[in-house]
Amino acid sequence: MPVENPEDRTVEVRPLPPSVDEELLSLYFENKRRSGGGPLVSIKKKGDSAVLVFEEAEAAAQVLSKGGHILHNVELSVRKPVPKDRCRLLLQGINPSTNIDMIELYVEKMMGLNTTDYILHPTLGRDCILIHLNQPFSTGDSSCLERVMP
Fold it and tell me: pLDDT of 110-129, one tens digit each?
């Protein structure tokens, strides 16, 4: 049996009514008759949205193909999550007067990069900086991401 890609088993649900908790989401989306879904591996609720990972890609596809999902009289939008770009990171909350050389030193130290490994793109207000990497992060680099992007 082939191993399914987690992205094929994942859906994003929004907007969630404030009264909806993870247990109700689980009951609804595991109910094949109501949602078209099936058993879930995980639910991550954040604000008015949630990311659901099903055991099987077919269940996620059925949920996506089903017409409307209504929970607590709210029509839910269900879609595939936006894929993450492992070559771009956004540093936010930068003091606009911070020297770009200081930011370069910080990025190189925290991420273990050389000056040829990345390009910095400050926003117009200089309070955010997009870091464009020449090579995508591997899964082993996640601790670096957590240090840079708390």
Answer: 888 888 999 999 988 889 99
Question: What does the domain layout of the chain look like in residue ranges?
Answer: 6-79, 88-148
| Peptide bond connecting 15 to the previous residue in cis, omega within 30 degrees of 0 | yes
What CATH code would you report for 6-79?
3.30.70.330
Q: How far apart are the first and last CA of the chain?
A: 38
pTM beyond cutoff 0.85: no
What sign has the CA pseudo-torsion 131, 5, 30, 74? positive
Q: Which residues contact 117 (CB under 8 A, 6 or more apart)?
A: 133, 134, 135
Residue 116 is given by DSSP the state G
CB 62 within 8 A of CB 36: yes
